[in-house]
Design brief:
Layout (H helix, E strand, L loop, with lengths): L2 H23 L27 E4 L4 E3 H4 L4 E6 L6 H18 L5 E6 L7 H11 L4 E4 L2 H10 L4 E4 L8 E4 L3 E5 L3 E6 L5 H12 L3
Parallel strand pairs: 3-4, 4-5
Antiparallel strand pairs: 1-2, 1-5, 3-8, 6-7, 8-9
Amino acid sequence: MTHRRIMFLGMAAAALLLLMGWLWLKPTGGDAFAQCRRGAVAGGAGALGAPFTLTSETGERVTDAQVFAKPSLLYMGYTFCPDVCPLDNARNAAAVDLLDGKGIEVTPVFMTVDPRRDTPEQLAQFTDAMHPRMIGLTGSDEEIRQAAKAWRFYFKLNDETDKENYLVDHMTTTFLVLPGHGTVDFFGRDVTAEEMADRVACFVERM
């Protein structure tokens, strides 16, 4: 075996060892947000959500790209909700203010699942009371149904006997949506404003 051939085989073996070491040590899945997650988005990042065109609290038609132009906290509920919706959205607003203190601008978003009663005017009263940057979204029954389905969000109108003062059963999840990445995580009711702000900051700093 010639000296040149020995050198070639040695270099090839070294390259193979380096490749195997890199494959062994590299992060699995290539998930830049792995250390930020507490929950698992089924199907991976971006699996929840879909493009939409809805009506904002100002009466303008807006797209998902316009709404989620910045990191956003999306909550679905209804303004006539007697308890959880005001509390959850106040928590989200507090987290947004904490993030402002970190130099991170996040948009709070409230999408109604009760478009029959939640007109743009009704939404404006609710969102203005919660946070000056909160975006309210409504639309037709079908538009809202499709949007909720895209986030796998359950709701049910209990309007069989009372067509005006009914309650709505719904989930209480807040979704973190990042521009260019889609829905990357979610938060339950037990998460505090401080914990939410810390987790959102982790994601935003790794965008």
